[in-house]
Amino acid sequence: MRAAAAASFRLAPAANPSHGRASPTTSCSLKPAPTARPSRLFTLARRAPVARASLGISHDKGSEVSGADVVGQNDLLIVGPGVLGRIVAEKWQKEHPGCKVYGQTASTNHHSELTDLGIIPSLKGATISQKVPYVIFCAPPSGSDDYPGDVRLAASNWSGEGSFLFTSSTALYDCSDNMMCNEDCPSVPIGRSPRTDVLLKVENVVLEAGGCVLRLAGLYKIDRGAHVFWLRKGTLDTRPDHIINQIHYEDAASLAIAIMKKRPRSQIFLGCDNKPLSRQEIMDAVNRSGKFDTKFEGFTGTDGPLGKRMENSKTRAEIGWEPQYPSFTEFLGLSC
Fold first, then answer.
1. Pairing of strands 277-278, 243-244
2. Which of 139, 166, 170 lies closest to 155, judged by CA?
3. In whole angstroms, what is the distance from residue 39 CA to residue 335 CA?
4. 310, 170 in Cβ contact below 8 A?
5. In the predicted model, is pLDDT for residue 65 greater than 80?
6. φ, ψ dihedrals at 261, nearest 5°
7. Using one digit for the tens of pLDDT, what is the confidence trace for 269-296?
8. Is 210 a residue whose pLDDT tops 90?
9. What are the boundaries of the region Disordered (predicted)?
């Protein structure tokens, strides 16, 4: 699903008011929201020369990454600065002017982009010359030969001050049949599946190190998420009443930052918008929104597993956080 969602996604020109349908097999397009913000790359690039002037950048595994002078009290390491990690970087830099933000990646493919965003890039496996007070691990397990080892290495770059946060998945909650589920629901047992096993093992590594875990529901924004995958397919042989839980990328980033600023230790938090929707409700909202040229045709399945209804009031109360986008439908500009 991730690969499909990452395929070409053409933004409709602002001057094009067309709501015409497109073939499900062709590239779908979006109508940009009238309040769209300037490009994040443009916004952050203006700060890049200041960052570049004082950064030590490493492109070698096992090497040392040196920043300027001493470590600042708000310096941050992001392991896996992809879509979510870059939003975290932007928000963190705005809240902590002058801080250094490091970004570790699996390859050098996007290092120039990270530098332009004011992020000090290095390859996975590099160590920072001095431990940093804040670390967030956003990299997925795919492509890693030793995911727990990667997390241990990230933890070794944490000074023990500030916060260490690992972004995990709500798939670890042992709940189904579209039932309610919150932070107190039990986790799936080891042995349920290889995917959940690796996440459970890594969560234990994080908690034992004094770090915290943020189990996130399905991430989305206008051109990424389950709705984009389904829209490209046109029709799917899956049941329409399966419940999906979501959280906008911006809200996931703001929640992650709010947790890190609280500096809790060895806790598991839950990130969702508290407005679970069925697959059918999600795609009905997409079709009604007028923001996409392509129309979704439907789900044709009648069996298969159901989902769960995630609710994170406990996390919100403890952290003092509320989402910018209370629901997927409201994000699309729909009242219900």
1. antiparallel
2. 166
3. 27
4. yes
5. no
6. -70, -25
7. 999 999 999 999 999 999 999 999 999 9
8. yes
9. 1-35
pLDDT single digits (tens) 136-179: 999 999 989 999 999 999 999 999 999 999 999 999 999 988 89
The residues near 40 (Cβ < 8 Å, ≥ 6 apart) are 86, 87, 90, 117
Q: How far apart are the first and last CA of the chain?
A: 27
Residues 6+ positions from 29 with CB-CB distance below 8 Å: 9, 10, 11, 12, 22, 292, 293, 294
Question: For position 38, what pLDDT does the model report?
Answer: 42
Q: Which helix (H) or strand (E) holds 271?
A: strand 268-271
Region at 98 (left for phi over 0; alpha for psi -120 to 50; beta for the rest): left
Element (H, E) at 167: strand 158-169
List the structure tokens of 74: 């708000």
pTM of the model: 0.81
